[in-house]
Structures
1.
Amino acid sequence: MNARRLRPLPALLAVLLTACATTPVPNKPAAPQLEAPKPEPVRNLAHPVSVPVAATDSANVWDQLRGSFAMADCDSDPGITTWARRYTQNPERFESQLAAAAPRVAYVQQIAARHNVPGEFALLPWVESQYRPVSGGKNMPAGMWQIMPATASALGIRIDRGFDGRMDVPAATDAIMALLSRYHDDLDDWRLVDYAFNTGEFGLRKMIDKHGLPPAEPVIPRMPVKPVTREHLVKLLAIACVIRDPGRFNVSLPTLPSEERLVTVSINNSMPLAHAASHAGMSQDELKDLNAGFRNGVIDSNASPYLLLPRNRVQQFQNALLAEGNNSPQTIAGTAALPPLNATLGAARDDTSDGPRQQTHTVKNGESLWTIARRYSVAIKQLQRWNNLQTANVKPGQVLKVAGPG
């Protein structure tokens, strides 16, 4: 990722995420999960995060993913089974696409588990892009998450002529999962989290303020959202439905051998993409597909200090680097160290501390706890805990903690 600072963009981030949700062709891989690391609370984006990617018995991958599901099953709405049948109308094609996407889905599920996000959301890229590293044009969404440029800026994701962090699978996924977790802190309903991802949280919150929270039934909330937003949730639950019960749709879920799982490998120096591919024993196209953020045929270690590789290519890559004296020995040990997402939010801070830094904000006229939470990309509930607030009322001149001391 980059060393850029995340600027406060209150309503903008929520509105911008409307464009994250495209409606791609109904087909492409779905998700295996490895042994999920222990979920952690939403992190402060100003500090680095390590994302474990551990290998487990491939026979358990799909069971573990199902076990992390938290939303409705296949029969909760007729539209879910309709879309599940569309996804699988050509079983051979579906299985091929699923096998191709399985390594990415497994990796995404690890990061979802870290943020305590249900397994269904590891399947979001299926709905968005079918896990393809879609290259966006000017002012267009990009990457498997289909992130708009301004949204990327709000999340601290670097985009320049040489690098597009929206297509960096580890960092972009971590940023999205942190965002989904914050949405749930505010909305307390995973269905609404998906609506917010598609249509924008700010607009959804105004809708909730006017019409109230939806009941548990029907499963697809009857809110005055756009049809594409309602269908987005249906599609997400439909691909989860196929993973729940593949036999019902006459498809089989592929195994994911441990050697095909994706891991990140640290790099100390920049190098041509062709050079890195040769070291890993891969074609340039294969390496580029996994590391699509690098734009100009150069692996820039200043833009991203790691490569995403299949596990069975790691040793060859590291041995080649050692042989040419270009990289000190690096061990993966199942851990991917992401660069900071850099959220220095224009607040007072203690720069002498080596640990997480406390930040404060002085309430201005016209501000609410809601707008402040949006500005600093934290949950309203978290602000209330940090500041011992019993209600959401704040007064001009009041000083609030907007990031915890640890």
Note: Residues 10-249 form one domain.
2.
Amino acid sequence: MSSKNPLVLAHEAGQSLWLDYIQRSMLGEELQSMITEDRIMGMTSNPAIFEQAIAKSDEYDEQLAAEVNANPDISNLELFNQLAIKDIQAAADAFRSTYDSTDGVDGMISLEVAPDLAHDTAGTVKMGLDLHGRVDRPNLMIKVPGTKAGIQAFEDLTAAGVNVNVTLLFSVQRYREIAQAYIRGLERRHAAGGAIDKLASVASFFVSRVDSAVDSALEANGQGDALLGKIAIANAKVAYGHFANLFGSPQWQALADQGARPQRLLWASTGTKNDAYSDVLYVEELIGPQTVNTVPPATLDKFRDHGEVSVTLTQGLPEAHKQLTALGELGISLDDITNELETAGIQSFVEAFDRLLESIDDKRKALN
């Protein structure tokens, strides 16, 4: 095993590691150290992360008080936007040198539209454009859920020249729909005379939650023990196979000739949830070129400590297909499971966002 930092080795293997976390207190020296020492190349946020940061600390109270004093009628949603935008701008500025040195491929920071817009195409596009304009940083990604409504919203935002992180993807089929929407959005933008050479996008494909759900189904089934802890990675490898095919196609090459960049797959939900599995399983097994892994802080620390790096993502695709086939032969529908995970993921973010707004309301009342 190399004595070199595994996080740096993963970067050298062609994968960008992003941090799946944000909190105001870590946006200075702590983040800068991760950028320089660990080669952390970007950052993602979501409603649950902001709930932890804002609701459960006092780091935002001073700005919250100032905003309320300046505008007593400000809504709780707008208060959140003001708090979040300040953090996102600071993070974007911290990653600006990464963005510049990679010519806009990395150095991205993601900000999500309100989760209650998950089934509202027009509302998602409107809020995405609003946040894009307000943050006003070239290395911002607007985060849009990959629901059926989100597919069109993503295409429209891409056509408008907005970097987008499509999140909450669980199924290969939905991923393929999203990748095609990216191509359509680029084609529309190019046809309208817009530049496409600086646009960046990622498709956030969730991993560990798939194993949690499939393992439960396997245990209830009483068969298929050999598939325990295998399906999430198999699912991801099959998605990556489609990525390689699509972004190697003649349809894509026509856009690449105009400077377009492929939409990278981003592995999300990569903290291990089952103590029986390696605590770095969903990092080690998904290392490959032109991908991103957004990693929660605890998993990042573990991988830095004892992670091993080799290009694993491009290995074992035939076996991955066999495992998915074997799951179906047991009568377990992966499509049903991934549909349920999408619904549950949206609901989880809606609930976290509601708790966050309630906490902001409590804090502003305490100021009176």
Note: Strands lie at 15-20, 42-44, 108-112, 140-145, 164-169, 201-206, 264-268, 291-295.
3.
Amino acid sequence: MAERTVLVSVYPKGTSGEVVDARLRELSGLVDAAGGEVVGVLTQAREQPDGGLGRGALDHLAETVRTHEAGLVVFDQELKPSVLSTVQHAVEPGARVLDRTQVILDIFANRAHSREGRVQVELAQLKYLEPRLRGMRSLSRLGGGIGTRGPGETYLEMDRRKIHQRIVDLSRELDKVERQREERRQRRSRTELPLITLVGYTNVGKSTLYSRLTRRPQMAENALFVTLDPTVRRIVLPDFGPALVSDTVGFVDRLPHHLVAAFRSTLVEVRDADLIVEVVSADPEFPIGTAEQAHVIDETVRALGVGTTARLRVYSQYDRVPPDAPAPGDGLPVSSLSGQGLEELEAVLAGRLAQQQREETVEIRWDQKRAWDVVYREFVIVERRDQEEGVRLVVRGSERAFYLLRAAMDSNVFR
């Protein structure tokens, strides 16, 4: 049964109604993904929103909770421990109080499947809960629900010293897992296949697009943060050759910096990408507009330190766009459901990656079998001219490909 929830937004005076509404729509989607049902909304503009609701608004919130028989109150912004304690006292004993970050962490806890993912979630939860334990003591008295997955209420009964030690232990374990991932990544990087990484707002169809590009099924559903554990697969692009493509955890507006830090290994594929594909939902019913999605992508990518990496924008879920709707901005319209634009996307990906490679003229004798194996496996043949003793080729490929070709040839006959 869905947990009845009241949403609260305390925002600075002068904030536009459109911004407030967009943030509440996003928060509603987060609550829905966590298993809640929104039954009421309360907003207040204040000069200093960090201080939470005013006295009158607090009384109104308590009345709203009683009227709607809500068991949960979710704020759109992070709450200071003192503010959390004040609000919790006002709505007790009927409801628990969480903020947006805790809801995101709760979804992460429910979505994490790998050991690494579970460690990252638990570490992020503990770091967030530690300074807020006093205001959240009531959580342990009210049982389960949104905000209690992962370590949840277990750690509310522990003292800070034990929690700190658990944080240290988890950090060490995560460092070990990250070193193992880094070793695998370095082994993969020695192949020097170009890496394409899909990024985008959560639930925009990244995983479905990933499945279409790789021709292999990938977990995809109409839910937030389905992909927490990154996957990398090899594809072959027409007129280009082999490349790697990765899917990543979905972004969300105002993703707290400590969550980005906690999931740094999950997002490492973004840092290593040769080409970042920004997936933006063109669905008119998507709760966040295309411009805001693009802004979230840009802010998150820059926070990861890869603001200069080449990018390509794709407008996904285009089958949901009315035929008479104006064209989107600078980007490719794609529908993973109908297949619209997928061939064009592959061609553009091939062209963009080709710009990052180089061409050379090589001469290969007919009897150099190993060299021919490398050519057919690693290169795109741009031009071919047969000769009596061999072939003169213009080939395009990566530095690794040229290294392999040189090693396979009996002598250096590059021109």
Note: The longest helix spans residues 160-189.
